[in-house]
Amino acid sequence: MRIDGRDNKQLRPVHMEKHFIKHAEGSVLITVGDTKVICTASIDDKVPPFMRGGGKGWITAEYAMLPRATEQRNVRESSKGKVSGRTMEIQRLIGRALRSVVQLDKLGEKTVWIDCDVIQADGGTRTASITGAYVAMVLAFAKLVEEKKIDELPVHDFLAATSVGIDPEHGIILDLNYSEDARAEVDMNVVMTGEGRFVEIQGTGEEATFSREQLNELLDMAQFGIQQLIEIQRSTLGELALQIDMKRNGESGSAS
Amino acid sequence: MRIDGRDNKQLRPVHMEKHFIKHAEGSVLITVGDTKVICTASIDDKVPPFMRGGGKGWITAEYAMLPRATEQRNVRESSKGKVSGRTMEIQRLIGRALRSVVQLDKLGEKTVWIDCDVIQADGGTRTASITGAYVAMVLAFAKLVEEKKIDELPVHDFLAATSVGIDPEHGIILDLNYSEDARAEVDMNVVMTGEGRFVEIQGTGEEATFSREQLNELLDMAQFGIQQLIEIQRSTLGELALQIDMKRNGESGSAS
Amino acid sequence: MRIDGRDNKQLRPVHMEKHFIKHAEGSVLITVGDTKVICTASIDDKVPPFMRGGGKGWITAEYAMLPRATEQRNVRESSKGKVSGRTMEIQRLIGRALRSVVQLDKLGEKTVWIDCDVIQADGGTRTASITGAYVAMVLAFAKLVEEKKIDELPVHDFLAATSVGIDPEHGIILDLNYSEDARAEVDMNVVMTGEGRFVEIQGTGEEATFSREQLNELLDMAQFGIQQLIEIQRSTLGELALQIDMKRNGESGSAS
Amino acid sequence: MRIDGRDNKQLRPVHMEKHFIKHAEGSVLITVGDTKVICTASIDDKVPPFMRGGGKGWITAEYAMLPRATEQRNVRESSKGKVSGRTMEIQRLIGRALRSVVQLDKLGEKTVWIDCDVIQADGGTRTASITGAYVAMVLAFAKLVEEKKIDELPVHDFLAATSVGIDPEHGIILDLNYSEDARAEVDMNVVMTGEGRFVEIQGTGEEATFSREQLNELLDMAQFGIQQLIEIQRSTLGELALQIDMKRNGESGSAS
Amino acid sequence: MRIDGRDNKQLRPVHMEKHFIKHAEGSVLITVGDTKVICTASIDDKVPPFMRGGGKGWITAEYAMLPRATEQRNVRESSKGKVSGRTMEIQRLIGRALRSVVQLDKLGEKTVWIDCDVIQADGGTRTASITGAYVAMVLAFAKLVEEKKIDELPVHDFLAATSVGIDPEHGIILDLNYSEDARAEVDMNVVMTGEGRFVEIQGTGEEATFSREQLNELLDMAQFGIQQLIEIQRSTLGELALQIDMKRNGESGSAS
Amino acid sequence: MRIDGRDNKQLRPVHMEKHFIKHAEGSVLITVGDTKVICTASIDDKVPPFMRGGGKGWITAEYAMLPRATEQRNVRESSKGKVSGRTMEIQRLIGRALRSVVQLDKLGEKTVWIDCDVIQADGGTRTASITGAYVAMVLAFAKLVEEKKIDELPVHDFLAATSVGIDPEHGIILDLNYSEDARAEVDMNVVMTGEGRFVEIQGTGEEATFSREQLNELLDMAQFGIQQLIEIQRSTLGELALQIDMKRNGESGSAS
Questions:
Q1: Which of A254, B165, C214, E212 is the most buried (most CB within 10 A)?
Q2: Which residue of E lies nearest to F223 if distances are taken between CA atoms?
Q3: Residue B89 contacts by C-beta under 8 Å, 6 or more apart in sequence?
Q4: Neighbouring residues of E195: CB distance < 8 A, sequence distance ≥ 6
Q5: Which Pfam families match (chains A, B, C, D, E, F) (predicted)?
């Protein structure tokens, strides 16, 4: 049994609180075990210069941690005057992942600013951010529909993420917490759609390597976890989830 | 009646949730109307270089807002690569205020890092930060006492803050929300102790001025509000509040 | 008697040299004891983006110290690549104070850049900066009137500033020099108009507090000093001072 | 047939010129089609502070492009004053990949600085950097052995990287050049060892997704390309390659 | 005899490889002994804001070193987040020197971006950069002529640079390598035209001084070296050199 | 006759006010026509890390302009967050020039910080800075002698600087003011010792060139001006000048 009593293929308890921040067009507080992230989606009525005139929308993400989200207090990136490589990597990942399920041409020339602020961290902050940001983004789109700025949710599938890894003692495990992550030989983040297609796979052996067989087992377990996360998104979104399902049946942005 | 139905000398609803962040030595989520601030106190077992060897402790504060804490999304200070003048002014104010009620020599060579992160803003974020940070700091000190790292709470009085201002329509008002603050002719932040002594007065006429009589009325109203805030701190801190009261009766750091 | 032989309510010798810098629209070298500040006012024929089209002017201030203005050489802020919190706080204070006595709508869409550069420091640099910058600004306005770019001085009152404090040995004192400031228990900067109305009060107890009675004595002494500073401004400005007096009698921007 | 006449599973011509930079302990100019990268390995006789006293070595990498390596001139990151997210992501990837095949404990407290400077870019710069940096690093280790600073090459396997992707017209292709990369629906970078174990998989659908079957085909093709790259490393390293083979047969750092 | 066997007035072997970087409008790899610099010239179809509407072109230069160009690895300027004083001085020198032989009015409103990237350094990198950048720039101009964007090469003379110095043992020497430069008492960089006119003289005694007679000898030797460098430029440029000679005979931009 | 009535070989009026800043070990306000620079010399009892243990001193210089020293207000370098290339070039020049006449080994492990702050600019600010900084530095050394921290002035000669140039109308002229500098075809700064030896020559043709004959005339005129500047230094320094003369007769640091 794992350090917190879970078995290898068990997610931590997951909860999402909608409309957590009143000013944002869409917002959610996602809790995955002891990891808590405030995700907001803000709509800006213009796109970056390189996209102007193209008629398409854009999605960009920022990620940060409160200084005391972690066991040891971290120096604030605003005080250091620069953003770390890790932060930039995560920001790019979140934006890229969300763009894969959004019909940017149906959004029109708008930018969606996603902010994921980790207020308490215990591993898996980037995957919790993606899973929560998806919901905040859909809520913001629903507001645009309500205000008649767009006709329908420009989203053609669900999207969620989790981590899997190889633990020296337990083998392949799902949804690593901080202490598990720190000792894992292989760490993999997987982002998938509701249809079970991959959006992103990032598998890394830190001072270790992994075989094709291990890869296959890792991916099976990730898919198992992501399906459950999507069920939680579905129940959080309620009626909006049905609209997404209808779109999913109609069209697909997958590579042929 | 004011925009949100309050009368001139009425505070907004105030709530404090202790131990909101599990990793921090002390933490509180303070809610003042729609303003919400996560305050944490972290203990570091050393002091800055200019204080080493003096046997005294130090308290320093950082303040930030989530990008979507406000009506319009703000650019993150970490992205801009620098901290604004407003942020620095607030950080210095919070640190200075807290130091006025702490017996730094009884703390020993430790630094208390206060972090005030505004997750939702509707005016009065700096005064809410001070009021909440005081409680987070006392909780952190209580943990040090519990771990037998210090003998007693090194705090000789309560400390809270509020704003008062002159509204063009309503005259002198207490605890301004954002829309009141935006139109106020005079804005004043007051930090006071449980004994009713001033720690900080910052009164500003933006494109306006104020008389000595108006100043006196503003200060009376601030004191009225701060006494109520200290009662809420007292009930949040429970038994710890009694320890502070005992210290208060024994000694005083006031200017003679 | 105080360290430099003054009695408690005595200002240091004050002198202002007009037109000290030939290129600036307005300039003054203000000397307050051993504190010397070059104040210049520069006129720019546009306002910041957030004010364009509003027909009103703007005033903004910058403050700096030469590295060897102080007893110990300071690292230049341009070398450090960032401006300190203290500098930003002072810059904001100077700009805000000047704006309170200027009729920005009569100035038209112009920006006044105030630069206060301390070439020698011995306490009270921010209050000397305000007192000198006021004169430099009026001189720049007079040049605009002369060049027929505006009709009259857009200034409705005088403005000056000084510090007061509580000294552990001497009690309440006026116009603190550096060594007095370093040991003061309470330090207060007061900005007032010629009419005796407050523009800004910043009172701070560093590891100390102060009572309402002490506050009243501090404010009385500040007013006493500021009245003398305004007399010196008056004699420096000569005929221009009379124009301001006439405006003062005609109108007022004070909070009702 | 692809734009440059290759078939889907064909690498571009690859060449490595050893000892290209005379000052570096190890260096190589790697050419992959029109992509050219100078890779150097520098040995520093200390490790970063967080590793001191642990007896282990460290490997860190930096990556940059000359401004005119690309079709359009890029602004230099030193002029912008900050390093982009893309650059940081690549730097972290290179360092992590190399560390996976090095016996850091046998290196002793030394840091290997890898510099990958792209002088001409036509896609695949990060994978060419890894493939070239591996050779530069082994050459630097050989110099340490020669100088009797370490006993043997602290490397237990080969390491190379390539890209695979899904092209809208040609389907799954190997070693994408710039124009292929720009239009690919799915892009994947794979880092593998001589034994055929994975070190890193980074697969990304930009506004697209991919199935488990497509993933398997992508990985097969990547492995096919990497085996050829390792043969070229082997012939570049000559006798040193045999030493690595002997180590490979003796031990393994793979996840169990 | 000097450390590398040269006599006092002997240049190191010089070689220029044209079209070294395929994307740049003009490029050359210049080798002077062990010093190697990639020089590229990029054409941008606009000029900086301060020159718009004037009908003239502009030339600007950037200079950098790869981290391991030198004996000891240097920290990258992009990592430090700022460009050193030495780099800025060299950049300004290169741009200024090139502008002295270009007819900016015949270029039209275009900017030439010169990039000089030192890939291996052994003294004289700034003079090698100027000598190589001149050739890269002429090649870029030739491309503009070919594309009929300008009528003729807007260059009225050749331009090259070298260093001379006073060595404590050998006296006055030409084209100092790194170890000679490190011990030289006087160091002088000279930029001259094909006509033998000066464009720039920078002579410096570091903790030493030099007489008028020594200055004259230094300048004679510099001219001797520069004439040879121009011959090498001439043979690299081939037919383009003849076009420059014809222009040189027709007109001159020298001070009267 | 030149724009300000001078003939070609006439300096502007020069004045030096000693001890202008009370805190600095040495200070001078130098006035050259309308150019005014505050020069201070500060002594620090340690040297930079790369010089520790060598028993020698170091001299470093910083240069800045007040924002309104110029006709148009300049943005402060501290606000821009970086120091311009021009500023760095001047700082390096000042430090290098001063070091050439100081016996660093007789100074011991001390750093002299030179600060040159231009409060009003009308051309020639860098040469005025060198000429004034020399005097400030000697005054600081005299203070060290007085305090018995060193035995004698560690200075073996005088040092001053001026500019010469080629004016399109007047030909070769001495000590250019701003408007002359702006239209000069050739601009040259010369730093010389009391013995008439060169320390630095920086001659530049901006979009122009100059002949050997013109160079000789420029240098003659520079020497003529510098001799007068040294006479003014001599009379400012009084008795200290005699001590320098005695040292000058005893020894020399010139290149053999």
A1: B165
A2: E212
A3: C85, C88, C89, C92
A4: E157, E248, E252, E254, F209
A5: RNase_PH (PF01138), RNase_PH_C (PF03725)
Half-sphere exposure (Cβ direction) of C153: Cα atoms closer than 13 Å: 24
Token pair of B85 as six digits: 């003048």
Q: What was the pLDDT predicted at C256?
A: 46
Beta strands (DSSP E) in chain F are 14-18, 26-32, 35-44, 58-65, 111-120, 159-167, 171-174, 186-193, 198-205
Which of A82, A96, A186 lies closest to D206 in CB terms?
A96
Phi–psi pair at C69, nearest 5 degrees: -65, -20
Across the interface, whether the CB atoms of D67 and E40 are under 8 A apart is answered yes
Q: What is the dihedral of CA E190, E193, E197, E200, to 10 degrees?
A: -30
Residue C236 contacts residue C137 (beta carbons within 8 Å): no
**Cα separations (Å) of A218 from A173, A199, F127?**
8, 16, 70
Low-confidence ranges of chain D (pLDDT < 70): 251-256
**Number of Cβ within a 10 Å radius of residue D148:** 7
- Distinct helix (H) and strand (E) counts, chain B: 7, 9
On whether any CB of chain C is under 8 Å from the CB of B104, the answer is: yes
D203: which 2 tokens? 């697969």
Contact A207 D255 (CB under 8 A): no
- pLDDT-derived band at E251 (thresholds 50, 70, 90) equals low
Using alpha carbons only, what angle is made at residue B64 by residues B59 and B67, rounded to the nearest 5 degrees? 170
ipTM for the complex shown: 0.92
Residue B92 is nearest to which of C89, C210, C219, comparing CB atoms?
C89
Entry field: residues in chain C? 256
Interface membership of A108 toward D (CB under 8 Å):
no
Least confident of A8-17, E76-85, E109-118, F160-169: E76-85
Q: Report yes or no: A45 at the D interface, CB cutoff 8 Å.
A: no
Query: Which residues from chain E sit within 8 angstroms of residue F209, using beta carbons?
Result: 100-101, 157, 193, 195, 197-199, 253-255
CA distance C31 to F214: 49
Partner-chain contact C23 F70, CB within 8 Å? yes
Phi and psi, residue A144, nearest 5°:
-65, -40
What one-letter code names the amino acid at F125? T
Residues on chain B touching A116 (C-beta within 8 angstroms): none
Q: For CA atoms E145, E149, E155, E156, give the dihedral sign.
A: positive
Q: Where are the alpha helices (DSSP H) in chain C?
A: 77-80, 85-99, 104-107, 125-146, 178-183, 212-237, 239-250
Q: What is the pLDDT of residues A111-128, one digit of tens each?
A: 999 999 999 999 999 999
C200 in contact with chain B, both atoms CB, cutoff 8 A: yes
Distance from CA of F198 to the nearest CA of E (A): 5
Nearest residue of E to residue F193 by CA position?
E209
- Distance, C-alpha B172 to centroid of its chain: 22
Determine contact, residues A199/D207, Cβ cutoff 8 Å.
no
Q: What is the pTM of this model?
A: 0.89
Q: Which residues in chain B touch residue C86, judged by CB atoms under 8 angstroms apart?
A: 92
Contact across the interface for E81 and D81, Cβ inside 8 Å = yes
Give F56-107 pLDDT, tens digit per residue.
999 999 999 999 999 999 988 877 777 888 999 999 999 999 999 999 999 9
| Whether B205 and C166 lie within 8 Å, measured CB to CB | no
Which of A204, A210, A217, A219 to probe by mutation at the D interface, max D CB count within 10 Å? A204
**CB of E125 within 8 Å of any CB in chain D?**
no
Q: Which domains does chain C possess?
A: 14-253 (3.30.230.70)
Cβ of F23 under 8 Å from any chain C Cβ?
yes
Is residue A4 less than 8 Å (CB to CB) from chain B? no
Report helix, strand and coil shares of chain E as percent, to nearest 5. 35, 30, 35
